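pasting for the record
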Amino acid sequence: MSTLLLDSFLIESAFSALDEEQESPLATATAELADLRFSIIVTARWEASASGDAARRNALHSTLKGLRFQYSQKIDEVAMRFGVQRAMDAKDEVECTVTVPQGLDMERLAPARDDESLYF
């Protein structure tokens, strides 16, 4: 086997191993992004339905701002760790697939008290 062929095989094997090592952490980061997206959707619905209770609506609004910030930070983290294209692909995948099932009782999921955690 020529040196050039062997070198090319070793380089390809190294890139393949690197891709495999990154897939699991990328999948974990994408799952975290999906969790944040679901929390944003649910919290936005709670905020919209919190009619008449200004204090609760304000608390939900603050929580929603925090979740949106965490979501954008997670996208930035994925971009820095795995590259911009993979971050955009993960974002697109999450935004196309994460939904709240129809018929889900949003009030049953809502925290009972204002000091109860709104994160999932």
